[in-house]
Specification:
- By secondary structure, the chain is an alpha/beta fold.
- This is 5-methyltetrahydropteroyltriglutamate--homocysteine S-methyltransferase.
Length: 712
């Protein structure tokens, strides 16, 4: 019997029942990670661990420790950004000129020692110093860059054999002159720590050119994402010294489809042919289900078993022959199922023409038609879509699902909530209203429930930001729309508002794709186009129902951008095309909106312009008005509503604070094209703060109208 290959994982889902180390160990893993769990945000945890705490929060903490309960807590929150190309949001650390790195807590050490006392062979996980600082930003007024403060923030991990140091920025295009030196400084310092072995870990994509110098760092092992970065393998076998471990990420940690173990075994065989088994590890790359579909899927616990099977099969295949045969049968079942491909959907895609992607007229002509039809004031006000999902709303939904409320009773409740929401917006003075989305649990799950080609889990939770979680749908086959999804509620809401337009609210095809578990047997662009046709049908039906303003949200369009710049153009081309496909079926008079949030938009602003939406609303306040820089560089000729306040914080900004932002925006955006709105939807907020904030926002717009009239 050959020596076994080590099996492990990089981390485990934070959300789920009975998440325990002994559960991981029960799947035969050689080693389990600790320190990867976070109650809120692992980037924020890492920053706090080494003392990266903005001064405004240090003052609050000092007052709290002094027992001052009457302190003013009106402090802006940290900026929020997407974690690489995922829907996970992290808080952006702020590094000041006088930043000192001090051990502020011992979270990772405490968790490692707890695991050790329980008898588990555990590997501490930390976010690498270079990635932590690269993901940070200078504090306001700072003259230095975060990387200027590079230091060794590692805590003592006495007793550990291996430490996993996550450096996901290695999957990005990096300035070699800057980052080669930064990594060398950091890992030369780590190499001085006696008795510890370091596993340098990157994921999300290939290392590419970064592999040349990363392979030479004084670490004891390197993890490769061989699902999304399979192109690295040949170079890695040549460049990584044979005395270093190669951790092979062969099981896709970002999707839920059962792995083709026979295919991945051939990759593993290539590695073991060039290495001894002791220097090879096998790892991960990073509901309403029928029995057949369930057999095609592999969630976190099933992936542990797949990793264990691969590790055993590489050296002792007879021990897992039956499991390999079962895997092959299920992979074949999915590949040959008649439920996957539908001729009507495929034929409709094939029949599309260039006209399918174009509005009837250019924006200037559409704008004239829309102004005549909508008769909106200067600086029109609106919200992004959702209003508070209160405990009462959630309770009614739960009662309906349990059968305690009939369909008619639940529908009556939703209509009452919608009418109250419409009436309040009208009284508050908002110009374009929304129905509030009380019927929706989630902006993607709701649409998946109404489309063919989707299935759902009951407990497949994924963390989005903080303690907020979503349950992504599973796209298993060709997508189509069997019936209208939002037309009835939009029609009802518009009847509640005879004098003001109500927006039809839809989620765009790229966002539905990005926030689902997507089938991997056809290009993502093709799946997105199928979703776009379904949304197009809904857009056309909304217009026919008398809805004059239709919003198709694409908050995920930036996160779908590939990590490597050489891959940008292909993605941007098809992502723009599917949005156009979804929205170009309406008349000139119908105003198409779209919304984007919580990303750095400079890299995709040209693509946003190419979407040809009539109005975009875009996050602005939480990122220190960085949007202004994009407007300076790229310009924008259509209408735009940069967010005037951050909805992810309970604080209510004053009229003066929002007015200052609005005044700055008027320097770059013509008055006739500028809207006033919040940063994002209001689903997670409470009604008192929402009413106060929106009342202030309406006041800002009203004052701006008066000032503009006085100056012209």
């Amino acid at each position: 019997m050959s020596a076994p290959i080590k099996s492990t994982i990089l981390g485990f889902p934070r959300m789920g029942s009975d998440r325990q180390l002994k559960k991981l160990a029960s799947y035969g893993l050689s080693e389990v990670p600790v320190g990867d769990f976070s109650y809120y945000d692992h980037v924020l945890d890492a920053a706090l661990t080494v003392g990266i705490i903005p001064e405004r929060y240090q003052q609050l903490d000092a007052c709290r420790l002094a027992g001052n309960k009457s302190i003013n807590v009106d402090v802006p929150s940290l900026e929020m950004k997407k974690w690489f190309d995922t829907n996970y949001h992290y808080m952006v650390p702020e590094v000041a000129d006088n930043q000192r790195f001090v051990l502020h807590n011992t979270k990772v050490l405490d968790e490692f020692l707890e695991a050790k006392e329980l008898g588990h062979n555990a590997r501490p996980v930390i976010l690498g110093p270079v990635s932590l600082l690269a993901l940070s930003k200078p504090a306001k007024g700072a003259a230095t860059k975060p990387l200027d403060h590079l230091a060794n923030p590692g805590a003592s991990l006495s007793g550990a054999q291996w430490v996993q140091v996550d450096e996901p920025i290695l999957a990005l295009d990096l300035d070699a002159a800057v980052y080669k030196a930064a990594f060398a400084e950091t890992y030369n310092a780590f190499a001085q720590v006696a008795g510890l072995k370091f596993l340098l870990t990157s994921y999300f994509d290939r290392l590419g050119d970064n592999l040349v110098w990363a392979a030479a760092l004084p670490v004891h092992g390197i993890h490769l994402d061989l699902v999304r970065g399979a192109a690295d393998l040949d170079a890695a076998l040549e460049l990584i010294p044979k005395d270093k471990v190669i951790s092979a990420g062969l099981i896709n940690g970002r999707n839920i489809w059962k792995a083709n173990l026979e295919k991945q075994l051939s990759v593993l065989a290539k590695i073991t042919a060039a290495r001894t088994p002791a220097s090879v590890w096998v790892s991960s790359s990073t509901g309403h289900l029928d029995e057949e579909t369930l057999g095609w899927l592999s969630f976190a616990e099933e992936k542990l078993e797949e990793i264990s099977i691969l590790a055993q099969a590489a050296t002792n295949p007879d021990d897992v022959a039956a499991k390999l045969q079962d895997n092959s049968a299920k992979v074949l079942s999915r590949a040959t199922s008649e439920r996957i491909t539908r001729a009507a959907v495929q034929n409709r895609l094939a029949e599309l023409t260039a006209e399918s992607y174009r509005r009837q007229a250019q924006f200037n002509e559409r704008q004239k038609a829309q102004r005549a039809a909508l008769r909106l004031p200067l600086f029109p006000t609106t919200t992004i879509g959702s209003f508070p999902q209160t405990a009462e709303v959630r309770r009614a939904r739960a009662q309906f699902r349990k059968g305690a409320l009939s369909q008619a009773e639940y529908q009556k409740y939703l209509e009452e909530e919608t009418q109250k929401c419409i009436e309040w917006q009208d009284q508050a003075g908002l110009d374009v209203l929304v129905h509030g989305e009380f019927e929706r649990t989630d902006m993607v799950e709701f649409f998946g429930e109404h489309l063919e080609g989707f299935v759902f889990t009951k407990k497949g939770w994924v963390q989005s930001y903080g303690s907020r979680c979503v349950k992504p749908p599973v796209i298993f086959g060709d997508v189509s729309r069997p019936h209208p999804m939002t037309v009835d509620v939009a029609r009802f809401a518009q009847k509640c508002s005879p004098n003001k337009p109500v927006k039809g609210m839809l989620t765009g095809p790229v966002t539905i794709l990005q926030w689902s578990f997507v089938r991997d047997d056809q290009p993502r662009s093709q799946t997105a186009a199928q979703i776009a046709l379904a949304i197009r049908d809904e857009v056309v039906d909304l217009e026919a129902a008398g809805i004059k303003v239709i919003q198709v949200d694409e908050p995920a369009i930036r996160e779908g951008l590939p990590l490597r710049k050489s891959d940008y153009s292909a993605y941007l081309e098809w992502s723009v095309n599917v949005f156009r496909l979804a929205t170009t079926g309406v008349r000139n008079e119908t105003q198409v909106h779209s919304h984007f949030c919580y990303s750095d938009f400079n890299e995709i602003f040209t693509a946003i312009k190419s979407l040809d939406a009539d109005v975009i609303t875009i996050e602005n306040s939480k990122s220190d008005l960085k949007l202004l820089g994009a407007l300076q560089v790229h310009g924008y000729s259509a209408e735009i509503g940069p967010g005037l306040y951050d909805i992810h914080s309970p604080r209510v900004p004053s009229v003066e604070e929002m007015a200052a932002r609005f005044s700055a925006l008027q320097q770059y955006i013509p008055a006739e094209n500028l809207w006033a709105n919040p940063d994002c939807g209001l689903k997670t907020r409470g009604w008192p703060e929402v009413k106060e904030a929106l009342t202030n926002l309406v006041t800002v717009a009203a004052n701006a109208r008066k000032a503009h009239a006085a100056s012209n």
